[in-house]
């Protein structure tokens, strides 16, 4: 794969524990969306740049939509789950308008709900986007008080180009970078134009 750097976006999702994980992954109107700092070296160290040449677990043409969810256990190139999307469709590129979000590849936690602060803050997620666009990692964030909910890791890559091919190497782990793997969801999301 070639190496090229473009814009990388990192967000977290937040919703009450009773909401479905799918709703939480898209931040459907509850909680906050704090910005976490990018930590490319942590993602590369935990996942490994060797993922660029490892065999993919799944391959898609045009887009990954609906979301593709990994099994709980995977172990390519240092506990990573690898998905290729070839010849990205123009429908999944571009800037949002009117306040709508940009098109993006989204990597999110898709395993069992997190209900304790210790489990939440011990949750780690990371992803590398090869083409190579970059890599980020993030930990869970516990919302105390009345919400008592977990903001699970949600990593998004924007600045995608139609017709190009991308590889995502992602991992969600409980107990930090050395912990056991958890299910990870990967999806292309279209840009949104709000009127």
Question: Could you describe the 3D structure shown?
Answer:
Residues 1-40 have low confidence and may be disordered. The protein has one domain (8-189). 9% of the residues lie in helices and 33% in strands. β11 (166-174) and β12 (181-182) form a beta hairpin. The chain has 3 helices and 13 strands; from the N terminus they run βααββββαββββββββ. The longest helix has 8 residues, at 40-47. It has helices at 21-25, 40-47, 117-121, and strands spanning 8-12, 58-61, 68-69, 81-86, 104-109, 123-130, 134-139, 141-143, 149-151, 153-157, 166-174, 181-182, 184-189.
List keywords for this structure.
mainly beta; disordered N terminus
Question: How would you sum up this structure in a few lines?
Answer:
This protein is mainly beta and 195 residues long. It has helices spanning 21-25, 40-47, 117-121; strands at residues 8-12, 58-61, 68-69, 81-86, 104-109, 123-130, 134-139, 141-143, 149-151, 153-157, 166-174, 181-182, 184-189. The strands form 3 sheets. Strands 2, 4, 6, 7, 11 and 12 form a 6-stranded mixed sheet that branches. It has a 5-stranded antiparallel sheet with strand order 1-10-5-13-3, with no helix packed on it.
Q: DSSP strand (E) fraction?
A: 25-35%
Along the chain, the helix and strand elements come as EHHEEEEHEEEEEEEE
Outline type: globular
Give me the Rg, rounded.
Answer: 16 Å
Give the oligomeric state: single chain
**Could you say which structural class the secondary elements and strand pairing correspond to?**
mainly beta
Uncertain runs are 1-40
Count of the separate structural domains = 1
The largest sheet, given as strand count, sense and whether it forms a barrel, is: 6 strands, mixed
